[in-house]
Amino acid sequence: MIELAFSILASDFAHLADEVARAERGGGTIVHVDVMDGHFVPNITFGPPMVKALRPVTKLPLDCHLMIEDPDQFIPEFAEAGADFVSVHQEACRHLYRTLQLIEQNGMQPAVVVNPATPVETIVEVLPIVHHVLVMSVNPGFGGQKFLPLALGKIARLREMRARMGLNFRIEVDGGVAHDTVARVVDAGAEMLVAGSAVFEPGKTEQNARDLLQLAYAADPDRVRI
Ligand code: DX5
Ligand code: ZN
Fold first, then answer.
1. Marked catalytic residue, from 34, 37, 63, 84
2. Is 174 known to be catalytic?
3. What separation in angstroms does the CA of 76 have from each of 57, 96, 119?
4. Nearest CA to 18 among 219, 218, 202?
5. Which ligand is nearest to the CA of 141?
6. In Å, how far are 119, 139, 140, 153 from 144, measured between CA atoms?
7. Predicted local confidence at residue 105, as pLDDT
8. Whose CA is nearest to atom 6 of ligand 1?
């Protein structure tokens, strides 16, 4: 089934609990937390303390997208803070398989992320051990960027690989998912739709989330619960 993962990067941090509640009322079912270190990506955001602050304000899964170098050293802290899903970039991990195992050993669901320039064929060996694959549809680092259509072919290829290999990982897409692009990512086969700037907007957050899910439903009524 298709779910909306709202990215708090675009929310008003001074009213975080209210922002999460609004997106949740609009039908969002996953909280997407963008962790950036100023090295792997040219921006700095937040880390485990943010996850810890979010944990008591929602029952939804906290989906932590780590855009950081050497993620291994922080994995126990994310577990301690209450993260549910932890995704690491293929490009940031020297020993990707080990890092994914470490996430699982810490009681969380492991996921792998591929940048726009990274072919999905480079992660074929780890597909059997991931909860989901995150396909970046922008260059990571900032919200509000333009959707890169090359992500569509990658999502479709992942779907084929999943069927061929008899696996059941989920497919997530992140970046530029908005009212004008959501139907295309749904058609391609994405199941976890990350959206930040298309959701959070003063006075409109709840409705924006609802509208996005409605558009996903219009594209594929069998895969969206509204
Ligand atoms: C980008 C982040 C995204 C970002 C998406 O590096 O990984 O999650 O918040 O923002 P929008 O939906 O505005 O493109
Ligand atoms: Zn993200």
1. 34
2. yes
3. 21, 16, 29
4. 202
5. 1
6. 23, 11, 11, 22
7. 98
8. 140
| 18 a catalytic residue | no
Residue 179 has pLDDT above 90, yes or no: yes
Ligand 2 midpoint to CA 63 (Å): 9
What residues form DSSP beta bridges with 133?
A: 112, 171
User: What stretches of 176-220 adopt beta strand conformation (E)?
Assistant: 192-195
Atom of ligand 1 nearest to the CA of 7: 9
181-205 pLDDT per residue, tens: 999 999 999 999 999 999 999 999 9
Give the global pTM: 0.98
Does residue 225 form part of some domain? no
Q: The domain that contains 39 carries what CATH number?
A: 3.20.20.70
The atom number, within ligand 1, closest to the CA of 136 reads: 7
Of the residues 84, 174, 187, 211, which is catalytic? 174
Q: Is residue 8 part of a domain?
A: yes
Rg (CA), the chain: 16
Q: Which atom of ligand 1 is nearest to the CA of 175?
A: 14
Residue 143 falls inside a structural domain: yes
Residue span of the structural domain in which 170 resides: 3-219
Contact 149, 167 (CB under 8 A): no
Report whether residue 7 contacts ligand 1, using a CB cutoff of 6 Å. Answer: yes
Q: Alpha carbon 156 to chain centroid distance?
A: 17
Q: How far is the CA of 211 from the centre of ligand 1 (A)?
A: 18
- The domain total for the chain is 1
Report yes or no on 226 lying in a domain: no
Please report the pLDDT score of residue 62 as a whole number: 99
